[in-house]
Amino acid sequence: MYGPRDSACATPTAVYTGSDSTPDGRQQPSHSFPPNHLKTFTTFVGLLRILLLFAAPAVALAAADEDTGYVLRPNDTISLAVYGEPDLSVLVRILKTGESSFPLLGPVKVTGMSVAAAADLLRKLYAKDYLVDPKLNLTVADYAAEFVAVFGAVRTPGQIPMPVSGRLDLATAMSAVGGLADNADANAIQLIRSAGSTTSFTMEAIQGSAGRTQLVAGDRIIVNHSAFLDKTVTILGQVHKPGPVPFPLKGKFDLINAIALAGGTTDLANPKKVSINRKGSVKIVDFRDLSQRGDQPYLLQPDDIITVPERIF
Q1: Given CA atoms 254, 257, 260, 261 in this order, what sign does their dihedral have?
Q2: Are strands 232-237 and 305-308 parallel, antiparallel or unpaired?
Q3: In the listed set 17, 36, 62, which residue is the last one of a domain according to the structure?
Q4: pLDDT in tens, 236-266
């Protein structure tokens, strides 16, 4: 039977519901919890509710911002929730100084700290002077909109948002804008740091180890247009297509390739007496010998004037 016995003749305690009866009409007792067991059960439920109430902050902390390793930066908006202290919960923006203002604490510098480290700092500050064993949760409500700018001779110049992780390298930034435009100078790519320093790179270097150079918000990448854009050399005389020939954007152009782009020499040409006029200074070149050897190209410069004379019979 339920309940403790007070003596050898103690009888069970019962609660009559009035719903059951014996065949002779007498009420049938329906057994339930005795009063002292019911009291014990009620006390247990109350204690359980109290334990769950205190456990709630711990559960919430376990479910805190997944990106606790994110490093806070100016213009981030962060949310502080202090359990059991609604007046201390606040939504604040991090200022350019790196500080945010929190109830009771005032300005606290959090820039450069991970979310987890900033939460630990606030917990210690509140525990020091204001709260006993504070339970709090710090999350990033809105990430700062920060960019790296890429301008100049790229396919889609503009601003690249910094990833949430805060990590963006030079190669990734160049890829994000579609790479170099056709008129770019692949040897003149400048990285201007937000702090003011400038470093020059070649595209070849960026495709290698230099591409892992880490960028920060406010950095600018400027890809210069080729210095040879719209530059030409002029070829006159005994060639099939006399006139101006575009200078290659890469900046390297030799006499053999130039005359080939002009359609080559005619049958009346005297290839041994080709002249190159460079800003008034004229040099005679044996084009036939140069073509046969092919080991030492004669390099041209923009605005050179090449004349292929006619043979004298």
Answers
A1: negative
A2: parallel
A3: 62
A4: 999 999 999 999 988 899 999 999 999 999 9
* Tokens, residue 244: 């101006």
Beta partners for residue 21, in sequence order: 27
Which domain covers residue 28, as residue numbers?
A: 1-62
165 three-state secondary structure: coil
Q: Which two tokens stand for residue 74?
A: 């100016």
Distance CA 83, CA 67 (A): 21
E-strand ranges in 46-98 read 77-82, 90-93
Residues 239, 301 share a domain = yes
CATH of the domain at 90: 3.30.1950.10
H-helix or E-strand containing 296?
Answer: none
Q: How many residues does the chain have?
A: 313
For residue 119, give the H/E element and its range: helix 115-129
Single out the residue in 96, 125, 142 at which a domain terminates: 142
pLDDT tens digit string along 107-120? Answer: 999 999 999 999 99
Residues 173, 162: Cα–Cα separation, whole Å: 10
The predicted model scores a pTM of 0.51
pLDDT digits (tens, 9 = 90+) for 61-106: 433 444 667 889 888 999 999 999 999 999 999 998 999 999 999 9
Nearest-angstrom CA–CA distance, 104 and 115? 20
